[in-house]
Amino acid sequence: MIVIYSIKILWLLLKTQIRSQTQYRLSFLADVFTTAIFSSIYFLAFALILQRFETVAGWTLGEIAFLVGMTETSFAFMDLLFSGFDPDSFSPMVRMGSLDQFMVRPVSLTIQVLGSRLILRRLGRVLEGLAVLAFGIVTTQPDWTWLKTFYLPVVLVCQVICMGSIFMMGSTITFWTVERIEAVNILTYGGNELMSYPMNIYPRWLLFIFTYFVPFIFVNFYPTLYFLDKPDPLNFPVFAPFLTPLVAIGMALAAYWFWGYGLRHYQSTGT
Amino acid sequence: METIVQVRHLTKDFRVLHRNAGKWGAWNDFFHPQYRTIRAVDGISFDIQPGELIGYIGPNGAGKSTTIKMLTGLLVPTGGEILVKGMIPWKDRRKYVANIGVVFGQRRTLWWDLPVIDSLEVLKAIYRIPDSLFNHNLGMFRKILDLDSFLESPVRSLSLGQRMRAELCAAFLHNPALLFLDEPTIGLDVVAKERIREFIRHLHREGTTILLTTHDLTDVERLCERVMVLDWGKILYDGNLQELTSRFEGVNEMRVSFAENGEDGLLEGLEPPVREGRYYVYRIDPRKVSIPDLVSSLYRTHPVVDLEIRKPKLEDTIRKIYENKSLNTPD
After folding, report:
1. Edge-to-edge strand order for the sheet containing B79-84?
2. CB distance A97–B127 less than 8 Å?
3. For residue B331, what pLDDT is reported?
4. Where would a tag sit more exposed on chain A, N or C end, judged by fewer CB atoms within 10 A?
């Protein structure tokens, strides 16, 4: 009952966002288009350089496009869906007291923050991600089994959840610092960047961190190895590509707990 | 009827970082933070009965906002108890806030880019307001608050007065039994203020319990029967507004102008007057001198041209209370 109500309210809040942003249709479309072009340039430049080398650590351009396409799509989609938890917009909310305003309404704060902002032009980057992914699939021609077909969207959803969790945790920190913390971007934007490359190119200590502390390695790299039937250079157990949902659930729980803890702190100290 | 708000020994402490100055200040703050505890609200107790309209006043930093934040469930107290309609505000927040209405004069509830009516529709869904109640309330508020001219305009294009009217409407759509108004008239012109007051009066007549925080003592004079005066986190006075005036400021001013010049203006039983142009200004303590008797005898014995009695302004009274903090509540 409460879940249905929450979803209904979230949808209503997002609808108001969509309505106000699409008021001027042409300018909205232009915004989405420019964002798509803008984010494509990065990959195009990368692809041009890569062509000179043929492979990076045994990965062809198409294979890397698959890797990049996956994380770009889900990062961009997360960036869109979690616009409210973007530390850039969340920190002013704490500072200006919008959060107090949310607290006097009988709706979950998570729902209200999610519904407070939806930066639609980020759709452009979703489109770019999908285009890169499509290019990766077409050039690598993976051997699609039914399990892979089913698992691909699961992985994408899990990636959205993982990166959204990092966003939430980054915003929660602002309850203590008020100002947003630049270091959080290492994990959000940096995490996206990190996952865009075959992870075996990184030094051991970095791999260690992103295997055991922030297990990003199971979020994009291992699933991609599985989709493309590539051998595992790091000799993890065969189930490694299927750890993605577990990582997503774990990170979501951690983020939700930390967010709740932050809110309780906020309630007892104010700003 | 049962008490709607019960507050007992309510206390709130804040821990604030004491910032070090100098070149290594920020460094030291980070590694050896020193905190100071500030007591914003210091053991206050009061009851509110259903239907009361209470003015909650005090200078900046007195602890008014902190109290309101605790009453609305935004802050957890350090000590003491709050019970509102049998609920503890900061526990079970969602259930509690469905029963109250809150307007923060300096913050906005309504969605900036949306037409006012769309915001109200969103609130309708949030508070699960039935169609009939929504239409009834909206119809009424449109009249009293004169919303029609800007109901379809986006909030960002409204004037401050229009926005506040829309905010008040938004806070009351779900018919809360208890309304917290924090500085609802701040920054408004006289006409806009009067319209807001009219709305508050209307809600009061309908039986809503209202706690009004304000800097504008005219709001209090026009609206409230009961006032609570807060300073340094303590309640200095809680009671009837008229009584407040007579208790704390006995001195009235009598301004008299006589037909014949050259009189020194000395009157028996009164302090020597101060001369202001044609007027002699006497300070009179109504607890010692009966003003009607004085005035009638004055007309009999002196050629009075003009006479005026000035009651003390609430503002002066309140200032006296702040200056004289030892005075306590009459109980």
Report:
1. B34-48, B5-18, B79-84
2. no
3. 38
4. N
